[in-house]
Specification:
about 750 residues, alpha+beta, Aldehyde Oxidoreductase, domain 4, 3 domains, seven-stranded mixed β-sheet, five-stranded mixed β-sheet, 17 helices, about 25% helix, globular, binds dioxothiomolybdenum(VI) ion
């Protein structure tokens, strides 16, 4: 019944215009730009104290001494929390019962496992006193030589990569395919460690009231966080209230509860007062995750007509000495290009760094910069235009599985992106073009791909007797605009004008909207909302169509349409009744219903589900100085239904800038002697600034996907990085004739090559 109603609603929206598809501005936009939005660290409950972490300056060993007395003697310092006095936890912070957990460093002992690991927390009346107290601890260590880098130790094959994906997959005979090829590419690419660097650092304000806990902290997964805290502190989830109304970015690093957040809760317990703990920028280079470095070898064969005969993609990555997140870099080769033989594999080494974690397009970002480079190299080896080569090897079914795609408008992305960019005017050979100022000009392209995922979420919808409605789901707005898009879905789902709808989100007492990750949030929470709305409308329809006093009597549940707070007879729209009248006659103050959002297992086992795109880049390179400027970036993306084109464009732009950043800017550099990150700050860890970002264009290609979910949503949070990074590095090759395979590309790579060439 409910699904019939939802289809009818969709049809009604097609006729009358819906909220879905409208370019609304962010609901909280004015609050944010006027400084009224209250982020976690803006909370100051009465009596609150400030906590500051002391972090390790070694990467491996033991803390042998902390001058706790000096810290405590400092005016304003209230307490110093160390392994000696840290309140007990109900659960071992090193226990891991599922892959959606992060092993934590919360002062469980004196061991140091990475640089910037928390080793003590100073709690004081002011931030300044806590900061000074932390500096006075003057730790001493027994240090061991750190294991750093992709060759730090014996490699091994992880049991799984990413969150539970197989570390090896193969289809067909790669050796035979390579042997049969007339053209070969065998190249190795390296990507660096990167850090999420959300503008808002991880922060927490924690208040205990007996065994009840109230928290302000940014979270991409409220229910996960609530469950994690419940386990660690041995209290029921219902005793924990988390508020996470605004996040200044997350990018994966706020997906799981991190050690510092738990330390804030422990500090509040220790002193019996509310405590605020905010990470300093350098504290974010260790305990809250990062993108692991990779070394990827691609072996590709092609025949005389430029068709792939084999594709082998091996990725080495690292994880920490104590946890198990492995960047799934080789997975990018599963979906993009038709090859009769594909093999992907991973191995890893253990290093003395904080545990890596998913970071915006985990696997696809690292993997696709290597794959798109190698494909570009093969196109050149085959004497083909890079776009023609990609079209020659266009995958009509998902190469690794043989499944049909639920939808795939990549061909249209290629065509429209190329047209917009002017790709047909490209000259094939590298280092042939100069602009009027004498700069080398290069054009490159890359294909974008990201899976269309869903987690599980729930929403609760209410219609009240005054004709207004409520939609509740504990969704996470990291700045991507999730609440705006979800409220649009909610208004349509309830058949209400947006101003009659109260949208409640961002707290842990609401239904679990699922984790905001994997580009899945709009689809997951959106489907929960859509289904909750449909269920309430079905109840209203039952009330009306079963009551002979209603003008809708006898229409049948499926014979009505919900719109603007009224139900209409489908066959005669002059006959309608308002929600208020239906509830009033039934003597009900309100009705409510819940809805679930989750992937359909039958559709998933039948179809491969991915978003796609094509990105075209122009760079200009100074032939003497090697300075690289991206001057144009044009992307065309197909990601199913667009809920809000303004926000989608913003997400895609953000991703494209991340891609450019991957190619040219970002790199965390670790000192091999100390294991310390040398550029743990936003001055020396380079990200693009406005002057680096060229004219961006993002085209959204229409795509109607009946299989991903009833709303046809695929997600846009991560795909923009993929393709963009490869497009930029391929453009640098085309400009200079220098193929750089270690990213980011640096001035010295080009200058050295020019000097030696
Ligand atoms: Mo994203 S890396 O799934 O927050």
């Amino acid at each position: 019944m409910a699904s019939e109603i939802s289809l009818i609603q969709e049809a009604a929206h097609m006729r009358h215009g819906s909220n879905i598809g409208q370019p609304l501005t962010r609901r909280e936009g004015v609050l944010k730009v006027t400084g009224q939005a209250r982020y976690a660290a803006d909370n100051h409950p009465h009596g609150m104290l400030h906590a500051v972490m002391a972090v390790s300056s070694i990467a491996r060993g033991r803390v042998t001494f902390l001058d706790v007395r000096a810290a405590k003697d400092h005016p304003g310092v209230v307490e110093v929390m160390t392994p000696a006095n840290r309140p007990a936890l109900a659960e071992d912070p090193d226990a891991k019962t599922n892959p959606f957990m992060f092993r934590l460093d919360v002062l469980q002992n004196d061991e140091v496992r990475y640089a910037n690991q928390p080793i003590a927390v100073v709690i004081a009346e002011t931030l300044e006193a806590a900061t000074e107290g932390a500096a006075l601890l003057s730790p001493e260590y027994d240090a061991l030589p750190p294991r750093i880098g992709l060759d730090a130790g014996e490699s091994f094959v992880p049991q799984a990569v990413g969150v539970g994906n197989p570390s090896e997959l193969r289809r067909g005979d790669v050796d035979a395919g390579l042997a049969a090829a007339s053209k070969h590419v065998d190249a190795t690419y390296e990507t660096p460690a990167q850090y999420h660097n959300a503008m808002e650092p991880h922060a927490i304000v924690a208040t205990w009231d007996g065994d009840a806990l109230s928290i302000d902290t940014p979270s991409q997964g409220l229910a996960l966080a609530q469950g994690r805290i419940a386990g660690l502190f041995g209290i029921s989830p219902g005793k924990i209230h988390i508020r996470s109304p605004y996040l200044g970015g997350g990018f994966g690093s706020k997906g799981f509860m991190s050690g510092p957040q738990v330390l804030g809760i422990l500090a509040a317990r220790l002193v019996g007062k509310p405590v605020k703990l905010v990470l300093r920028r350098e504290h974010m280079y260790g305990p809250v995750g990062h993108r692991a470095p990779t070394r990827q070898r691609l072996r590709i064969g092609a025949d005389g007509s430029g068709r792939l005969t084999a594709l082998a993609h091996h990725a080495r990555t690292v994880s920490s000495s104590f946890d198990d997140f492995f960047e799934p870099a080789a997975g990018a080769s599963h979906t993009l290009y038709a090859s009769p033989a594909i093999a992907t594999s991973h191995d890893a080494v253990r290093v003395d760094t904080g545990t890596p974690l998913f970071m915006r397009a985990p696997g696809e970002a690292t993997g696709s910069i290597a794959l798109e480079s190698a494909i570009d190299e093969m196109a050149w080896a085959c004497g083909m235009d890079p776009l023609a080569f990609r079209l020659r090897n266009y995958a009509e079914v998902e190469p690794i599985s043989g499944k049909p795609f639920s939808s795939k408008a990549l061909r249209e992305c290629y065509a429209q992106g190329a047209e917009r960019f002017g790709w047909s005017k490209r000259q094939p050979a590298p280092r042939q073009w100069r602009d009027e100022a004498g700069l080398l000009v290069g054009w490159g392209m890359g294909t974008a791909t990201f899976p269309a995922l869903m987690f599980q979420g729930e929403a609760r919808a209410v219609v009240r007797s005054d004709g207004s409605g409520v939609m509740e789901t504990g969704a996470h707005d990291m700045g991507q605009g999730a609440w705006t898009a979800l409220a649009q879905i909610a208004a349509d789902g309830l058949g209400l004008e947006p101003e009659r709808l109260e949208f409640r989100s961002g707290t842990s007492d609401l239904p679990d909207a699922g984790i905001a990750g994997g580009s899945s949030h709009t689809a997951t929470a959106g489907m929960a909302i859509h289904n909750a709305g449909a269920a309430v409308i079905a109840k209203l329809a039952d009330l009306a169509t079963g009551d002979e006093r209603s003008p809708l009597f006898g229409a049948g549940n499926a014979g009505v349409v919900a719109r603007a707070g009224r139900l209409f007879r489908r066959d005669d729209e002059s006959r309608s009744e308002s929600y208020a009248d239906i509830l009033g006659r039934a003597g009900l103050a309100e009705i409510d219903a819940r809805g679930q959002g989750a992937a359909d297992p039958a559709a998933q086992s039948t179809y491969a589900m991915h978003a796609h795109g094509a990105v075209f880049a122009e760079v200009k390179v100074d032939p003497d100085l090697g300075q690289i400027r991206v001057t144009r970036l044009v992307g065309a993306f197909a990601a199913g239904r667009v809920i809000n084109p303004r926000l989608v464009r913003s997400q895609i732009f953000g991703g494209m800038i991340w891609g450019m950043s991957f190619a040219l800017h970002e790199q965390a550099i670790t000192d091999r002697r100390s294991g310390r990150i040398l550029n743990a700050n936003l001055a020396e860890y380079h990200v693009p600034v406005n002057a680096d970002v060229p004219a961006l264009e993002a085209l959204m290609i229409d795509e109607h996907d009946r299989h991903v979910n009833a709303l046809g949503i695929k997600g846009v949070g991560e795909i923009g990085i993929t393709g963009s990074a490869g497009a930029v590095v391929n453009a640098v090759w085309h400009a200079t004739g220098v193929r750089v395979r270690r990213f980011p590309i640096r001035i010295d790579d080009l200058v050295t090559a020019a000097a030696s060439g």
